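so i finally got all the pieces together for this one. its two components total, 584 residues if u count the protein bits. some of the lines might not be protein, just check the labels. i wanna see the whole assembly predicted at once instead of chain by chain like last time, that was a mess tbh
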Amino acid sequence: MSTDKFDFEKGKHLRYEEYFQGENNGLFIKIKELLFSKQSKYQRIDIFDSYDVGRVFALDGITQTIEKFEFMYHEMLVHVAMFSHPNPEKVLIIGGGDGGTLREVLRHRCVKEAVMCEIDVEVVLAAKEYLPSLSCAMNDERASLLFKDGAAYVSEFEDYFDVIIIDSTDPTAGEGGHLFTVDFYKRCSRALTDEGLLVAHTENPVYDANWLKMAYSRIEEAFEVTKMYTGFSPQYPSGFWTYTAGSKGNNPSVKVRDDESLESQLKYYNGQIHRACFILPVFLNDIIESKS
Amino acid sequence: MSTDKFDFEKGKHLRYEEYFQGENNGLFIKIKELLFSKQSKYQRIDIFDSYDVGRVFALDGITQTIEKFEFMYHEMLVHVAMFSHPNPEKVLIIGGGDGGTLREVLRHRCVKEAVMCEIDVEVVLAAKEYLPSLSCAMNDERASLLFKDGAAYVSEFEDYFDVIIIDSTDPTAGEGGHLFTVDFYKRCSRALTDEGLLVAHTENPVYDANWLKMAYSRIEEAFEVTKMYTGFSPQYPSGFWTYTAGSKGNNPSVKVRDDESLESQLKYYNGQIHRACFILPVFLNDIIESKS
């Protein structure tokens, strides 16, 4: 969302528009109140309130979070990997400045240390002020917030983290582009313990099949085991969202741990979803298995 | 899409807009060429070509079909029920005027008779002219096209059809409203054989949870066995689409038949998807199990 894309509808309401692929398709949300709008060192940050879907947070005009729908994305990004690890104590989040991923990670009581490495301090400051339902876990004593480049930071570690979660902007938007190289994924692999898992969101197969294929292939190049899974995510283009998990041997499609008190509180994820989400529609399987 | 909702973007291109819930959220697609636009006896019919997603067909401003994405909806609407029946020979489609559902039904060689009961002949005529990739099976010798009210038509039958597929407009749009009553579903049950199944699309749980709940409950009232399943459908609001299957005893979540030559041609559905699609995210399960 940038102000030049604002549009008056019948002269009454400002409207946010996100373009999916070029400018030929997209989504709009009527703005109830613009809460925050700032060009940081890295990107344009906008947060506004809507009429039906809660607060909306965008970077460079790309929706990052819609309050009403974010649980679907954050639960699926976090809990599949967390429940595939027997005892995740040390977790690294790269990106994730709104705090939603950190919030879900810290719901696991076994976690002793959760590092969120978000390059843009302005995103975190804005989330603390305007997205309390997401940023609510930032003051947890197990959390460390670092404002630096995740790719450089992860290089400092070897055999340390149990789970690494990539919750960055797309390669086509904001500051996330350098987080999608084979070299970066290899650094992540090195920073993980032998039982460790990496998980990244890998876009939709409808408007961004090429980039989905690229991201999956690069993770596959850096890890022994690589599996894609899917989840509904109405906050993103097409609603058809994919995630890719990589490991040195652990099978991310197998839930190895129970936590009844946590699981009873979740709104999207459960043990059956964990298994089912790895079943891919035929054309999506074809995309990731194609050689080209 | 109605012409008064057309909007000029920077004075260059006409744009189609669909509203999801009130007028606060929606989707837009730039129109490359308006191919057909007519107010029939029942509804406004529009078909246009887009830049990225093929041809788009709308009734009363509600998207029915987007050429690039329709396989996801039509495969999931048709093949789950068809593969849950041991030998579906007689199939009734209520609605489905674009022909996509009929096309998928007739891919099953066991089908001897497929009746498509579409109230609006103008939709079929437009689809034959402007949506050949969907209407391509209308001339199949096993197909009968009837232009009458599906609710009245189905009442003429008892213990006859193997599968009934409801592919109508939403109760909030077009002529489909009367197709969502308990009485209608009971007539469908009566028209089905003992092994028969009904399947209907039942909207999304994001913008239309109340209507989803209502449709599911009414089907549940008319059938012994009722099960909801989901599928990605980027052509519809939120992309998070649900379907509900009802039967007198058959379990729609169990695939009971193989057809290798057909299955090898499908782009979304396969046997694993058949099982996985019945696993519902927690909040969706909560919606359909809630008493209110």
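Residues 1-12 of chain A have pLDDT under 50 and may be disordered.
Chain A has two domains: 3-66, 70-289.
anyway lmk what u think
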